[in-house]
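Example record

The entry below shows one chain as it appears in the dataset: sequence first, then structure tokens.
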Amino acid sequence: MAPMGIRLSPLGVAVFCLLGVGVIYHLYAGVLSSRLAAFRQRRKVDLRDLLAVSVEAAILGGKEVKKVREENGLNEKTKGKTREGASELLTTGDLQSHRKMFNLLKNTFPEVKVYSEEHDNTVDQTLTWSRVIPGEILERINEGKDVSPERLTVWIDPLDATQEYTENLVKYVTTMVCVALEGKPVIGVIHQPFTDFTAWAFVGQGSNMHSRSSYSATPSKVIVSRSHSGQVKNYIREAFGNSTTVIEAGGAGYKVLSLLEMPPSEAGSVDQADLYVHITFIKKWDICAGAALLNAQGGHMTTLKGEDIDYSETALNKGGLVASVGVDHKAIVKKLPDYDPEKH
């Protein structure tokens, strides 16, 4: 008897193939699902790691800033003018620092949005995080916090106080990194390249900075920008009286440090002030890191009307700012005269 065979019609072949695919899908669906879950887990960003990278980036940028200044290779040019008519300068120090800071952050956390004061298409894939978390961060922050990268915005200022940098007033110069979580600053780093001091804070977790032991309830010293000190002096004295000392200084990062307790090794390197006030437009890469440092000490940085500043994607803060720590911030705001930066 001839052996019996099974002959499938084209429809049968199709059904058999579909059944086979179904079996394979069911066999591997669990594996694929678990791998996808693992991938999603890997996409989380550890904020303690991001703090460590931010410190490393600020220091790396600071080395470029210092090197260019010491070699007198600034090659300064004007990017344009501010709304108030002051020249916005760009130097080789700004660009070199930007390239180091931006590429290090993007290479380490490619899915995180990073906004910088400078714009440059130079890509350097060789810049990678050392994977080292500084000892003082490990001492103060026991564990990290995982968040989704889409919730984060990073602001970097590769060289704060460029005008003063060109004038060799280097004490005002800083490099800064800030991390905002859903628009609120949670990590701030302010590095001083010419003293090699780095201030950092992780809001709610720890910081290497402290508020001073005492502040004046009515500010006796208010720090303001050198670029428009005449207008702001009148504003300050209308609020707090003619005896108020107004300190003119460069750099938003420097001004925030003036509100905090500097370590003994840095004593005398920064002016001491009770309040920081700015009455014109200002970019968020200038102020975000300082806001995080102040918030970590229970301080505040708001608009002149006392409103919180949203550190999401829009770069320009149009409401001016008032920054304090160790005082009743709401009481300070109430003393400020009505002023709308958009109308001046």
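Notes for this example: The longest helix spans residues 10-42. The longest strand covers residues 152-160.
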